Amino acid sequence: DNLLDDSLRQRLLNVVKGYPEDHSHTEDDWNDVEDGPDPNRWIRGGLMDVVDETTTDTGDNNDNDNNNNDGPCWGLTNEAIMDICYNDHPAIRDFEARLTRLFPNF
After folding, report:
1. pTM attached to this predicted model
2. Could you say which DSSP state residue 54 is in?
């Protein structure tokens, strides 16, 4: 569909990983494939909308803090979510502009 080109795809990935958008990969970068999700950016059990039958609801509503290492999947830390949502990321603006052109009535 050509919505994303390789450049924008890489810039968005850098935003999600917490790197500057123009970051070029180095040997010192965290290797998600070999080492799993970067614990500075990702947390186990970080998604609240995934059913996990092995855990019980305690009702304390604190299941999504950065100290929770339980859960069926990985999600971004609260800090990473705040960064993505509230800081200026030109790659996100570029993606939103493409969506706006694709769906002008929404």
Report:
1. 0.74
2. T
